[in-house]
Structure formats: C-alpha cells, structure tokens
Amino acid sequence: MRARPVSCCFSGHRPAKLPWGSNEDDLRCVALKRRLWDAMEAAYAEGYRHFICGMAQGCDFYFCELAIKLRQKYGDVSVEAAIPCAAQSQGWSAAEQQRWRQLVDACDYETLVQEQYTPDCMLRRNRYMVDHASLLIAVHDGQSGGTRRTIEYAMRRGLDVVDIPPVM
Question: Is the pLDDT of residue 3 over 90?
C-alpha cells in the first residue's frame, strides 16, 4: 500500500558528513543503524507500511537495507526507491553502484523523479518523498544541506519528523 497516511520517507547524510565516513564497521555507525532500526520498528508499530528511500550513498542505503529487513520480518511492508535521475549512481565506485542496483532491484517500487540530471533533481526527489508520506525519519546533525532542507519542508507540510543524530 502506497497511501500517504501509511508512508514513511527518509533523509540523511552521505558519507562525507558522517564522522566515520564510509566505514560501516565503525561502532558509531553500527549504533546509528540500531537507532534507525528502532525508529523504523516504532513507525511500523504506529501503522506505517510503505517506506520511501532516496537511494543516495550513506544513510539512505542504511535506511533502504533496514526497510527491506522490515519487509522480511513482517511481510506487509513495501519499499520504494525514489530515484532523482537516471544517472544517480554514475561516478560512484563499482561496489557502490552494485550496492545501489541491488537495493533498487530489491524494492517493490521504483520511481524515477526525472530522466536527466539537473542541479535541482535531488531537491525534487526530496519533495516527492515528503509529498507522498506523513512521517519523515531523518539522520541529521544540525548542518545545513539537503537533509536540513528536507526536514524544514516536511515540517511546513505537516509531517511528523523523527530526527536521529548520527552520534549520541
């Protein structure tokens, strides 16, 4: 079910803004993934069944992987890849491109926000997600950038926001 009242979207930092970078074995990253899982379990308990992910490197990947685990656990969960443009993963390492492709393939829905890259395609993707959800889970450390703008947009649109700091 993809109805807005039961849909949860996500925004979070890319590796460059995370204190551990791309090292997902770092204990701080492991702890963040645990807090993110707990937030997603709580969303499920509140009735959320559709999870929308923007498919960027870093926290988006964590969220997507956990949403797929949630679907495996409960069965009535759907996962949507909201892709800003067809070239999203171009320029990433081969391993990251493969991870992206595997995650997109594992999703129930794939929404391509626009075909060609433009400077505002990430913003359009973020607005698409917020406009199709009633809950935003965000991993945010207070820095300006896309995640902060997404939180602000979600608040203007009346979404509930769960803000998770990357490090406790």
Answer: no
